[in-house]
Amino acid sequence: MEDEVLVSSPLIPEKSKKRYESAYKFFKDWCFAKDNGPISEALLLAYFQEKRAILKSPSSLWCEYSMLKTTIFVNENIDISKFVKLRAFLKRQNAGYKPKKSNTFSRERINQFLEEAPDEKYLLMKVVMLMGITGACRSHELCAMKLENVKETGDLFIVTIPDSKSGMSRMFIITEHLAKVKRYIELRSKLTIESPRFFMRYQDGRCFNQPVGRNTFIEIPCRIAKYLNLENPESYTGRAFRRTSTMLAANASFPESFVGVPPRSQIQQVDVPMIVKDEVMSDNEASSVEDNASEASCAPNRVSYNINDNEVVGLSTSRCKDEIVINGSEFSSSADQNINITKTDQASGGKPSFVINVSNCSNCNLTININY
């Protein structure tokens, strides 16, 4: 009966259901072996003290706690999140712990591998690297990618991830090294097997009728690091491509959330709030700046905002925390609708200090933080 309740509960993530079942069964077997009574805080403390020697890392303990918290609540209606001593014990395990993180590839190393490594041996790895870094893909997303998810459109490839970890589909575009992708697709098309998987085993310049498994995707960053003679190649794990994508986006001063391109859809008549937050100076700092400015020039330090070349009234100030709300009904419902926001600081000679371009929005809220 307990298994039936566990499986049918909507509180259990579908993808992790087996792990939750296994964790709960292991805990119940431990309780039976110890001949313990009903679940209590003291019982769980004893259990996690034993698990600490097995799981080693604090993150694994927290993962076990999370699974037991859900399964115990579902099956026995006991909320272990109220056990304060247990949570304090788990938090103490974080002291002095430094999690191991995968190393990342620099842009120079990426280009070196894509341009210098022989395609006869490394073509599959090159395409995997392009997909993994451009789309910030996880290993299981690369493994599950299908032929229908990769579309060639003119001088670019549009790749769709239909079922990401968040449960929502996303898209990204490949615009460089297209010849590598085209070459792989050409070799992939020669296979006679009707497999929907995009990545098939590649060796000695040809593809074979065998899909690439997830463990192979996890090992590919390490193999690339060995080819490039990088230090500690074993530290380039299956998360290397995704972390590299985040690192490159950060170095380019580009928001991480814009790495993937959402599917194109028609713009609806909705309100799109655009929030621009400036660092606020204290009153003393502001008065000091204003006094110095008045001595140097009689012209006020006027800051103006323009949306599609139309000035927003009431936002002329030397220091502010602004919120600009754009009503979507004021713009056409075209798939090519662009919204341009320009901030002009008169103190810098009247030149625009930043320009924000928002394109192809559909029922979305955008928050833009600008610190200067």
TrEMBL record:
<keyword id="KW-0238">DNA-binding</keyword>
<dbReference type="GO" id="GO:0007059">
    <property type="term" value="P:chromosome segregation"/>
</dbReference>
<keyword id="KW-0233">DNA recombination</keyword>
<dbReference type="GO" id="GO:0009009">
    <property type="term" value="F:site-specific recombinase activity"/>
</dbReference>
<dbReference type="GO" id="GO:0006310">
    <property type="term" value="P:DNA recombination"/>
</dbReference>
<dbReference type="InterPro" id="IPR011010">
    <property type="entry name" value="DNA_brk_join_enz"/>
</dbReference>
<protein>
    <recommendedName>
        <fullName>Tyr recombinase domain-containing protein</fullName>
    </recommendedName>
</protein>
<dbReference type="GO" id="GO:0003677">
    <property type="term" value="F:DNA binding"/>
</dbReference>
<dbReference type="InterPro" id="IPR013762">
    <property type="entry name" value="Integrase-like_cat_sf"/>
</dbReference>
<dbReference type="InterPro" id="IPR050090">
    <property type="entry name" value="Tyrosine_recombinase_XerCD"/>
</dbReference>
